[in-house]
Amino acid sequence: MPNVLVTGGSGFFGGVLKHRLLAEGFTCVNFDLLPDADSLPGLQSIQGDLRDMPLVEKVFHENRFDGVIHCAAMLAHGKINPDQLWTSNVDGTVNLAKSCRAAGVKKLVFISTNCLWASNLGHPVTETETPNPIEMYGQSKLEAEKALAKYTSDLDIVTLRCPTIIDSGRLGLLAILFEFMNDGNTIWVVGNGDNRYQFIYAQDLATACILALDFKGSETFHVGSDQVKTLREVYEAVIRNAGSRSRVASLPKGLTLAAMKMAHKLKISPLGPYHYRMIAEDFLFDTTKAQDLLKWKPTLTNEEMLTRAYQYYAERKDEIHARTDASAHSKPAAMGAIRILKWLS
C-alpha cells in the first residue's frame, strides 16, 4: 500500500484528506502541531513542529513515504505571532522539501491559496498571472511557493491553489455566518451582494491531491467550484435549504468597508485586510488547466457545499462552541465587533 505523509492532518481539510486516503487503500502518517483525534487502521500520528528539523528528519528516516501532501499552515486568525506564522509557513515548507530530497521521496503536493491575490482582476484568474498578496498569510504562501521552485530539479512538486475549502465540519469565520442563520438573524451582504466568490468542496480538493500524487513533473493548478452564483443567491439558497427565518439584506459598501478597516486597526474584528478587500468583489479561479491536465472536475456548487457545512453546525452547535483544542477551521472564530451587527439584526 502506498504510504503518504500528510501535514496538518489534525485540522479540518487535513482530516478530510486523511480519511479519504485511508478509504482508498493508502496508509498515512499525520504530522501536526495539534493532537490527532483519530485512531484508525493504517494511520500513524505524530505531534510536532515542522520547524523542528531533527524531528522532521527522524520521521523521514523511520518511514518510507511514496509522497507528501503538505496541508499544514498557520493562519492569520486570532492572536498569532507574525514571526511564528512566517517561519511555520515558509521554513516548515523548506524543511519538508529538504527532507524529501534527502530521503528520495519524489512527490510533494503543496496546498496554496487564492489569498495570493486581493483584488478583482475582472476575469477568472489563471496560473500565469502574477500574484499580489496584501497580508502576511498570502505573502507567506507565495514565499513558500518560491522556495519550493528551487527543488523542482529533484522533486515533482504540484502546487494546488484553492479558494475557501467547504464541507461538513468547516467552521472558523463561517461559524459566524452559521450562528446568524441558526438564530434567524439578518444575513448581511456588502453592497448588492451580486459579487461571485468561489469556494471548493473539500472532497474535490482531496481528489485533486490524490491525482497530483500521480502527476509527472512539477506544475501549479488552480482548483475551485463551477457554476458560481452571486453571494446573495448562495446565501438565499442555504437559508431555504435550512428552513431558517433569516433574510438577506444589504449594507452600504463604502461605509461598511471603512468600518471594517477601522475595526481591524482597533483589533476588535476577526476580519483582516484580505476580507475587507474581497468581501464585495468578484474572485474566481480559472480551473481549465486542472481539468485538462489533472483530469480533475469539481462536483458540488457553492450553495450545495455551504448547506452541508451549515447542517453540520446546526446539529452540533453547543458542542462546537465548547471547542478549544482544535485547529482554526475546526472551531468557531471569535465574533468580536461583528456581535454588534448581530444584536442589531
Task: Write up this protein.
This protein is α/β, with parallel strands linked by helices. The chain folds into two domains: 3-166 and 198-222, Rossmann fold, CATH 3.40.50.720; 174-196 and 229-281 and 301-343, Alpha-Beta Complex (UDP-galactose 4-epimerase, domain 1), CATH 3.90.25. It contains 13 helices and eleven strands. It has helices at 12-23, 53-62, 82-103, 136-149, 174-182, 202-213, 231-242, 253-265, 273-278, 288-294, 302-315, 317-321, 338-343; strands at 3-7, 27-32, 43-47, 67-70, 107-113, 156-162, 164-166, 187-190, 199-201, 219-222, 248-251. It has a seven-stranded parallel sheet, with helices on both faces. The longest helix is centred in the N-terminal third of the chain and has 22 residues, at 82-103. The relative contact order is 0.15. The mean pLDDT is 95.
| Overall mean pLDDT | 95
CATH superfamily of the largest domain: NAD(P)-binding Rossmann-like Domain
How many E-type strands? 11
Low-confidence stretches: none
Total count of helical runs of at least 4 residues:
13
Roughly how many Å apart are the termini? 54 Å
Largest sheet: 7 strands, parallel
Quaternary structure: single chain
The 3D shape can be described as globular
Helix amount: 40-55%
**What's the CATH first level of the largest domain?**
Alpha Beta
Structural class of the secondary structure composition?
A: alpha/beta
**Architecture per CATH nomenclature, i.e. the level-2 architecture of the largest domain:** 3-Layer(aba) Sandwich
Percent strand: 15-25%
CATH-assigned fold name of the largest domain: Rossmann fold
Spatial ordering of strands, largest sheet: 3-2-1-4-5-6-10
Radius of gyration: 20 Å
Query: How many domains?
Result: 2
